[in-house]
Design brief:
Strand content: 15-25%
Order of helices and strands: HHEEEEHEHEE
Number of helices: 4
Helix content: 10-25%
Largest sheet: 7 strands, mixed
Structural class: alpha/beta
Radius of gyration: 20 Å
Distance between the termini: 45 Å
Length: 231
């Protein structure tokens, strides 16, 4: 590990000597087994999505899937075989599979009406995520899945707010705290860990972090959680 850090620093200095305006391309650091905290379960986002396929193969009937804050439906393909709905707070959005509402309080959605309640990079934007988690648990059927992914490390990006980052322990507790959910997996996808994210996509540069010799932002961990509602 120390050798990898030394090589990263040396490579950065050499790059700046050759071209002071250039950003170094960091060597990929592979952590050997046993050289990082035993509390860290390193997995892939796909590990969570695989639960969707498995659930579909193990259950029959009209299966339902709620994509909380699903925007334009980027994960619609992952819900193949389910009746797919997006819950969005933005009242200007339209769509045949769209439901307007606030996940922190959506009484117009019936108890235990979805087989899977899902979100991807949404919970960091919710000011009172414990309320959102309670609603997710209320909406999912007994035996159904809660699949949620939120950043542990990511640059500031207010859409329209940016409020929290989550460890696997914290994200799991949000759903387990009422005693109705059992965790299936909780860990981190670090496949984009060293991606250089400079921001600049938001009006007014609201998502631009300070830049240094490493670039804009190079520590990306996605916390991945899957829980099952106890039957």
């Amino acid at each position: 590990m120390q050798k990898s850090r030394f090589l990263s620093r040396a490579f950065g200095k050499l790059s700046r000597m050759c071209d002071p305006g250039a950003l170094p391309v960091l060597p990929k650091v592979i952590l050997p087994k046993g050289e990082f905290s035993s509390h860290l379960n390193i997995l892939r986002r796909q590990d969570a999505l695989d639960f969707i396929t498995r659930y579909h193969s193990e259950n029959v009937g009209d299966l339902t899937f709620l994509d909380v804050g699903g925007r334009s439906g980027e994960f619609r393909g992952s819900a193949s075989g389910f009746k797919y709905q997006i819950l969005e707070i933005d009242e200007t959005q339209v769509g045949t599979d769209l439901v307007i509402g606030d996940i922190c309080h959506c009484p117009h959605l019936a108890d235990e009406s979805y087989d899977i309640v899902f979100s991807h990079t949404v919970f960091e934007h919710i000011l009172e995520p414990w309320r959102a988690a309670e609603e997710c648990v209320r909406l999912v059927k007994p035996g159904g899945l809660l699949i949620h992914m939120a950043p542990f490390a990511w640059r500031y990006h207010p859409v329209p707010l940016d409020c929290y980052r989550y460890t696997h322990t914290g994200l799991a507790h949000l759903f387990e705290r009422g005693g109705q959910v059992k965790t299936e997996i909780a860990g981190y996808d670090i496949s984009n860990r060293r991606k250089n994210a400079t921001g600049g996509k938001m009006a007014g540069g609201l998502d631009i972090p300070p830049k240094d010799e490493l670039g804009g932002w190079r520590e990306h961990w996605l916390t991945v959680y899957v829980g099952r509602k106890i039957q």
